[in-house]
Amino acid sequence: xxxxxxxxxxxxxxxxxxxxxxxxxxxxxxxxxxxxxxxxxxxxxxxxxxxxxxxxxxxxxxxxxxxxxxxxxxxxxxxxxxxxxxxxxxxxxxxxxxxxxxxxxxxxxxxxxxxxxxxxxxxxxxxxxxxxxxxxxxxxxxxxxxxxxxxxxxxxxxxxxxxxxxxxxxxxxxxxxxxxxxxxxxxxxxxxxxxxx
Length: 197
What we know:
- The chain is built from six helices and six strands; from the N terminus they run βαβαββαβαβαα.
- The chain is α/β, with parallel strands linked by helices and 197 residues long.
- It is globular and about 45 Å long.
- The mean pLDDT is 95.
């Protein structure tokens, strides 16, 4: 498979920042993205990153930067796109992982389900924040990075955890955890590949 990995944010649009340790979303997503790319390539896939440095694709405008990431998926003709992020809210008790797709039902829903199941299997103590009202695990939102990708392409935005939660910030800030995170996401992608044929 050909996979586009989108490490969310990048300078100057730096994303969330943990309140205790100062862990930054832009750094965590890039590091996890690099490890996931290596993992997928070791398993025989072709993987691309939307950014390989600490900088955004388009530094001057956040909306243009998000669109450029989705457009890249079409240009590279990938089989799926995974945008990686870290969550943050005002309440430090909020915790867990979640996966967003665009509103409606399409091939992205199965990808989201497989990623969430694999992540939860690898990290059973992490809360799975699911929206079960439509029969699957994903949450739905009109996210520009996903809207800019080609119609019909399986594409999701995965929140690894909450930087606003002290325990999850410490976990997401520790590079020793990145191979496990990458392997969990990689297995989800592979399971999706097997089940979508």
